[in-house]
Design brief:
- This protein has a single domain, classed as Orthogonal Bundle (Lysozyme), CATH 1.10.530.
- It has helices spanning about 5-20, 20-30, 35-45, 75-80, 85-105, 110-120, 125-130, 145-165; strands at about 55, 60-65, 70.
- With about 170 residues, the protein is mainly alpha-helical.
- About 40% of the residues are buried.
- Strands 1-2-3 form a three-stranded antiparallel beta sheet.
- Strand 1 and strand 2 (about 60-65) form a beta hairpin.
- It is built from eight helices and three strands; from the N terminus they run αααβββααααα.
- It is about 60% helix and about 5% strand.
Length: about 170
């Protein structure tokens, strides 16, 4: 969903809560050192918070799971993927994101927008874009992947804060 509203993200968040998926996002965020909102935002951008196969091209599914792990990135995961393993999908996507973060950190890049963009277009593309003085989103889908993920993060932060306040 390239165009979204706060109501769209609230519905996605409510679905993740109702399905019991928040514990998986929280565990992966803690394990790999990310904000939960970043993982939620990537899952939102990739699948509208659904654990699905996607990106069907040339007779082949290219994305698997709630964070759309690419078959070229992790074919073992994709070949074993099932729609009932949301926890594994979140963990695999977060582990891939961690690798991109580590690569970019080695290039002196720690910006969350750049890390998010790398999840979509690859860390090498992001590093080359930044080195050339271009926006990290230069080669991302829609030219706005990282910016969009950061915007979604803000909404999810508010939703998580409201949920925590209401639970108190």
């Amino acid at each position: 969903m390239s165009q979204w509203t706060n109501a769209d993200l609230k519905a996605q968040f409510d679905s993740a809560v109702a399905n019991g998926w928040m514990q998986f996002f929280e565990a992966s965020a803690a394990q790999y050192g990310f904000d939960v909102e970043l993982l939620l935002a990537i899952a939102s951008r990739e699948t509208n918070m659904r654990n699905i196969k996607g990106d069907f091209r040339g007779g082949v599914w290219h994305g698997y799971g709630i964070m759309q792990v690419d078959i070229g990135t992790n074919p073992t995961f994709c070949n074993a993927w099932t729609d009932s393993d949301v926890e594994g999908s979140i963990d695999c996507g977060t582990k891939i994101l961690q690798g991109k973060k580590t690569y970019l950190a080695g290039k002196g890049i720690a910006d969350v927008k750049a890390i998010a963009a790398a999840y979509n277009t690859g860390e090498g593309n992001v590093a080359r874009s930044i080195a050339a003085g271009l926006d990290p989103d230069h080669t991302t889908t829609g030219g706005n992947y990282g910016s969009d993920v950061v915007a979604r993060m803000g909404v999810f932060k508010g939703l998580r804060s409201s949920a925590a306040t209401n639970a108190s």
